[in-house]
Amino acid sequence: RAKQRGRDTYHFFDPDQDRLLQVRHEQRQRFIDALNRDELRLYFQPQVDMRSGQVIGVEALIRWQHPEQGLLAPGQFLSTIDTTSLEIDLGEWVLTQALNQLTQWQAQGISITISVNISPTHLLISDFSQRLGELLKRYSHVPPKMLKLEVLESAAMHDITAALKNIACCQSLGVGFAIDDFGTGFSSLTHLRQLPVDLIKIDRSFVRDMLTDPNDMAIVESVIYMANRFDRAMLAEGVETLDHAKALMKLGCFLAQGFGIARPMPAEAIPAWLIQWPNQTDWQALTRLS
Ligand code: C2E
Ligand code: MG
Ligand code: MG
Ligand code: MG
To answer: Fewer CB within 10 Å, N- or C-terminus of the chain?
Structure first.
C-alpha cells in the first residue's frame, strides 16, 4: 500500500525495512505452522550431582525438526517468536510436553524432574501462575515438584514486582524455580537477595574459560561464594571436561550439566543413558574426590 502511494508521500519509506517486516511475518507464520504440524521436539539434557553421581533431573531444550533444514537449535528460530501470544503458545506447548513426558517416565518407573525454560514475556503475563495451576490440575498424577522452571535473570529485572508475585505463586503450587545464565545480567547480586529461587545456574560462558581466563575464574568463584553465602543451591552449565568438573568441585559447586556428562537427547534415549551413566568410570571417580 505504501508502495503504491509512492515515494513523494512517504519520504521515510524504506524498501529494506518493508522487506524485513515481510520476512519476519513469514518466519512467524512458518513457526505457527510448525507448532500445528507437530514439528517441534523436546530434547533432554541430564543434570547430575558430581558428589554422588546422582541424576537430579533433565533440562528440556526445544528443537525444530524442520522438514527441509533438519534439526534446528533454538538459536536458529527462537528470535522469530516475537509476539506475546506466540511466546505463550510455545511456552504452554513446552509445559504440556514436559508433563506428558513426566507421565510417561512415571509409568516406566523413572523418577527425574524436568526443568523447562520460560521466556521473560511468558513469565510476566498476569495469569501465568493461574494457567500453570490449571495445567497441573489436568496432570494431577504428576507431583508439581517434578517440574522446575528456569527463568533468565533479565526476566525478573524487567518487572521485579510482577516476577516476584508469579514466582511466589508458582512456588506455592510446588513448582521449583531456577535462575538461568546467572552472572550475565546487570544486577545479579541484588536479584539474588530478592528472588526466592531454589537454584542458580552459572552461565556456561564463564565456565567455558574458567581454567584459562583468570577473569572468568574470578566470576565463577564469586558466584559460588555468593550463592553459598545466600544459602542457595547452584549448578554449573557447560561442564565439558573432567578438569572443569574437578575445579568446580574444589570451589564448592557440585551440581553440573554439560556435554562432558551428556548432550541433549531425545526422550527415548534417556532410559538407556540412565543405565549406562553409572558405568562412566571417569565421572564416577569424581565422587571419590568429594
Ligand atoms: P539455556 O537454557 O542456558 O540452555 C543451555 C544451552 O547450553 C543449551 O543450548 C545446551 O545444549 C547448551 N549446552 C549444555 N551443555 C553444554 C556444553 O557443555 N557445551 C556447550 N557448548 N553447550 C552446552 P540450546 O539447546 O541450543 O538452547 C539455547 C537456549 O535456548 C537455552 O539456553 C534457552 O535459553 C533457550 N531455550 C531452549 N529451549 C527453550 C524453550 O523450550 N523455551 C524457551 N523460551 N527457551 C528455550
Ligand atoms: Mg535453561
Ligand atoms: Mg543457561
Ligand atoms: Mg543460555
So the answer is: N
